[in-house]
Amino acid sequence: MTRHLNRLVIVALVAITSLYLILFGYFIGATALRVPVFDVIYWVTHYIDHWLTGDWWGYLWADHNGHRLMWSRLLMIATLRWPGGSVMPFILFGIACFVVMIGAIVLEVRGADLPAAPRLAIMLLVVLLLATTFNGIDCGAPQLGVYLHTCAFAILALVLWDGKGEGGRYAYARRIGAIAAGILAGFGVSGGLLIWPALCWAAWRGGLRWRWIAPLFLIGVPFGLFYMHGVKPT
Q1: For labelling, which of 27, 29, 169, 226 has a CA lying 20 to 30 Å from the CA of 114?
Q2: For residue 56, what are the CA distances in angstroms to 62, 75, 77, 205?
Q3: CA 232/CA 123 separation, integer angstroms
């Protein structure tokens, strides 16, 4: 009886998730901005003032309301060079970030030591919880996609950092990738800097030694100071 009930729950979750993803795709198309809004107009003028004058570092690194919007500024270059000036680069990158965000968590759950039915149910629930209407709007609105950029790299950093064992090439590769993703998380919004204490906590909670925790301090603290240096108060 329990096995039959579990099967019915899984089938229902699969059907609901499928419908949910269809609606998610619809909302991306229905809410995608096809004309510039205030923030995007500012990005265009910033592009004219810096990138077109050869000041590529000023273009990429200058803060905007306390954030280093490097991803958005690279996407703005792609948008302005896209035939017709379409915002498609923002939409595609937003969807890619969304897929990474969900995929990283789903793969982590898949590798967990859980019975098959609860594991599959949790994976489907992850999709249902994250494939919200608001995230669909984030994919289609350039000025909101910054949150997806940070969330995707922050989640990827946490998932890559996780893993049993102190040594081995696989562990080193995963954690180097986690540090790289942690750095990239800051280039959506400045909230991405919070990934460093989160990684330190994960390392300590996972029982890792100081040879793993120390590099997080040695990289995260200087990066955070460098990131915040020169940021104008809003």
Answers
A1: 169
A2: 10, 14, 11, 41
A3: 42
* pTM for this predicted structure: 0.87
Q: Tokens 């301090």 identify what position?
A: 217
For residues 203 and 216, the answer to whether their CB atoms sit within 8 Å is: yes
Tens of pLDDT, residue by residue over 200-234, are 998 888 888 888 889 999 999 999 999 999 887 65
- Per-residue pLDDT reduced to its tens digit, 85-96: 778 888 899 989
The DSSP secondary-structure symbol of 53 reads G
Residue 119: which H helix or E strand, with range? Answer: helix 116-130
pLDDT tens, residue by residue, 58-111? 999 999 888 999 999 999 999 888 777 778 888 899 989 989 999 999 888 888
Q: How far apart are CA 11 and CA 8, in angstroms?
A: 5
| Cβ proximity of 72 and 146 under 8 Å | yes
What angle is formed at CA 89 by the lines to CA 83 and CA 92, rounded to 5 degrees?
130
Contact (Cβ atoms closer than 8 angstroms) between residue 138 and residue 144: yes
Question: Six-digit token pair at 113?
Answer: 């030591």
Residues 6+ apart with CB under 8 A from 171: 163, 165
Give 64's DSSP letter.
B
d(CA 30, CA 44): 24
With b for 16 or more beta-carbon neighbours within 10 A and e for fewer, the 34-49 pattern comes to eebeebbeebeebbee
